[in-house]
Amino acid sequence: MHLYGTQQINENGHLTIGGVDSVELAKKYGTPLFVYDLQLIRERARGFIETFKKLGIKAEVAYASKAFSCIAIYQLAKEENLSLDVVSGGELFTAIQAGFPTERIHFHGNNKSYSELEFAFDSKIGCIVVDNFYEIELLKEISEERKQKMRILLRVTPGVEAHTHDFITTGQADSKFGFDLNNGQADRAFLEVKDHEYLELLGLHCHIGSQIFETDGFGLAAEKLMKKQGEWKEQYQFESTVLNLGGGFGIRYTEEDTPLEPHVYVEGMIKTVQEYAAKLKLTMPEIWIEPGRSLVGDAGTSLYTVGSRKNVPNIRDYIAVDGGMSDNIRPALYDAKYEAVVANKANEERLSTYTVAGKLCESGDKLIVDAPLQQVESGDILAVFCTGAYGYSMASNYNRIPRPAVVFVESGQHQLAINRESYENIIQNDLPLSLKKGEY
């Protein structure tokens, strides 16, 4: 059994996280429950930041907070000297409520609204990553009306397709994101903003996909972006100061996954950028990256209570838990794979195989198919590993199920980061019928 971060098995045979017994966490806070290992998140953040420092490269490491957003995680990012990548007014508002330094916030998104962009200007954020021509016009209008400067990056699609799941690959030419680097769109966008009085163009941004286990794709993307910046210097005497190579660094969900350590990704990027800076006689740009999943993914563990069981003779054994696709949509959406352990029997052999079903009214609500586990009984606590990214952040109230609580653990301490929703929370925005019954 593969354990992550500070996970251990104690003398009672229970899974512990951050020095805290997961079974006791389930008793205290209830289930379903997301548990985050803060020490592991800190170690990952420092792994990226310290590699840049060690190699003497000016950089920003921005937490891609769509992976998991809340006030407490933004405060942790601030403690670890991360920047922050937000993709909506809601994420920006949460960051401000957390006291995050707005000059270290970067705003992404392919359809930012006028009000969201105004909010970004009001908040004096550090950078807007521009995604399309419509957004350029909005930014010109807002900045000119306010006579307020804003730093921007142009997001481009470099035509690099990472080795990842088709649904989450974004760097290829056919993408809803960014200006195509190969059909003239990026050049046109550059010309529209390069001399604008209030828009300060820092450079280029790309994101080639997610759950990537090699460095070749990042190297090829860096090469393409550096060559484009070399063209702009030669033709227009414009030199970029920032190159943002996005995120997408993979983590281990199952034994089939082979992620690299943070420093390996960073060192590969730096080598390529340095090579082409020298070759094209460009000033070495500041390198920005945007890890999300690789910071919080395997730091998160979901705890569930096992309820019903069902045996389908000669086919499979089902166990049902008190959560499912309402708190982890990824298996249904992406066919994502996970591993699990019975947290209160973690020291026992895994001699049985079960399909872990959720409680949602959907036949596709299966968290893990054919999971090797200890003998399971109703009332056991099931721990599903590596649910820290895109679990809670994509959670829903489908079937009117409340969202789970979130707990942070570190050095034997634990605290609520997000309260469990109540039934009252679910109906708080509902309104009674007021229209008079009509005849049809």
Kindly describe this structure.
The active site is at 361 (proton donor). Residues 41-296 form the Orn/DAP/Arg decarboxylase 2 N-terminal domain. This is Diaminopimelate decarboxylase. The chain has two domains: 8-30 and 299-427, Lyase, Ornithine Decarboxylase, Chain A, domain 1 (Beta Barrel); 38-296, Alanine racemase (TIM Barrel). The chain is globular and about 70 Å long. Helix 2 runs parallel beside helix 9 (262-279) and helix 8 (216-236) runs parallel beside helix 9 (262-279). It has twelve helices and 21 strands. By secondary structure, it is an alpha/beta fold. Strands 4, 14, 15, 16, 17, 18, 19, 20 and 21 form a nine-stranded mixed beta sheet that branches. Strands 5-6-7-8-9-11-12-13 form an eight-stranded parallel beta barrel, surrounded by six helices. Strands 1-2-3 form a three-stranded antiparallel beta sheet. It has helices at residues 22-29, 38-54, 71-79, 89-97, 114-123, 133-146, 185-193, 216-236, 262-279, 293-296, 330-334, 423-427; strands at residues 8-9, 15-17, 20-21, 33-37, 59-64, 83-86, 105-107, 127-130, 150-157, 179-180, 199-205, 242-244, 286-289, 300-312, 316-321, 340-342, 352-357, 366-373, 381-385, 405-410, 413-418. The model has no long low-confidence stretch (mean pLDDT 95). Helix 9 links the parallel strand 12 (242-244) and strand 13.
